[in-house]
Structures are given as structure tokens and as C-alpha cells.
Amino acid sequence: MENHRIEVVYQKGLQTELDAVAQRLCDQAKLAAKRAYAPYSNFSVGAALLLDNEEIVTGNNQENAAYPSGLCAERVAMFYANSLYPDAKVVRMVVFVDIVAEADLVPPCGSCLQVIRESEVRFEQSVEIILIDRNRFLRAESVQQFMPLSFSGDFLLSKNNN
Questions:
Q1: Which one in 65, 73, 74, 75 has a CA-CA gap of 20 to 30 Å to 97?
Q2: What dihedral angle (degrees, nearest 10) is formed by the CA atoms of 13, 33, 106, 104?
């Protein structure tokens, strides 16, 4: 039997420490959160994606009385980006939740992390993820920092190609 270790690496700080492009994405994610449809949870989330073609795509959570048929901001943005620009890679993602808590910033749910991971596998490029609240940030170089043992689907692709 072998022991294995998983290391999670991320940065934390104040939003004012982020570069100009990240600041622009923060602003877009905050605007997206204002347009969220969250009458049941009152938990508005906005996401902004920077694509490798320099386009910025935003999304927000969309709830539904028939819970859980709504969608999180991250998946709305990812699916929207893929439908508009199917060959563009997601380079960066900023996720904004308008809460200030003593705890850490709110990470994407497992379903959203899996969708982001699919993009990383599909395009063979990591997606930088920046979580923000009103003034702090947490940045990770890849979704694997949040979900290191993610489902890649590689075995399904190889099975279907044989």
C-alpha cells in the first residue's frame, strides 16, 4: 500500500491587490450578481469568465420554485460561453457572492467544479478561479485546487473511441 498526499495551493488577499484584468472581471461578476434570479434563497451569485479570445462572458444563478431545477452562476456562465464561443478556452473565472462572513469565501459547488474541470480537460488548459466577496479574494490556479480527485471522463472518451 502506498500513501499519497494532496496539496492545495491558493492565495488570499484584498481585491485591491488583484491585477487590472482581474479587477475588471470582479466588476462584471458583481454586476451579474445584481441580475441574479434568487427569490427563494436570497443568495445572489455572479460569475465572469475571461476567454482566450479576450471576450468576457457573465452568468448568475437562476432559481426555480421546482428546486433543484435552477442553475448556479458558474454553470450558467460556462454553458453560455460554450454556446457562444465553442472553440474558446476559459482562462479566468471570477465568482462573486455578496456576503461578508468570518469564514472563507464561498467556493463553487461540486457540479460547477465538475463543469469547470470538463473545460480544463477539453481544452487542456487550467482555469484560474478567483472567489470574491465585497473586498477579499481567494485565487487558485486550477479547479483541481478545489476538487483534486475530480472525474475526468478520460476512460469514457477512450471507450467511445475504440
A1: 65
A2: 40
**Residue 105 in contact with residue 133, Cβ under 8 Å?**
yes
For the chain, the first-to-last Cα distance in angstroms comes to 32
CA angle 26, 42, 48 (to 5 degrees): 20
Catalytic residue, chosen from 74, 118, 120, 128, is: 74
Whether residue 65 is predicted with pLDDT greater than 60 in this model: the reply is yes
User: Which residue segments constitute the domains of the chain, with CATH numbers given?
Assistant: 11-160 (3.40.140.10)
What is the value of pTM for the model shown?
0.90
Read off the pLDDT of residues 97-119 as tens digits, 9 standing for 90 and up: 987 666 778 899 999 999 999 99
Report residue 83 CA to chain centroid gap: 17
Query: What's residue 86's pLDDT?
Result: 97
Pairing of strands 136-140, 56-60: unpaired
> ∠ CA(39), CA(42), CA(47), 5° rounding?
100
63 is catalytic: no
Q: What is the residue type of 77?
A: A
CB atoms within 10 A of CB 44: 21
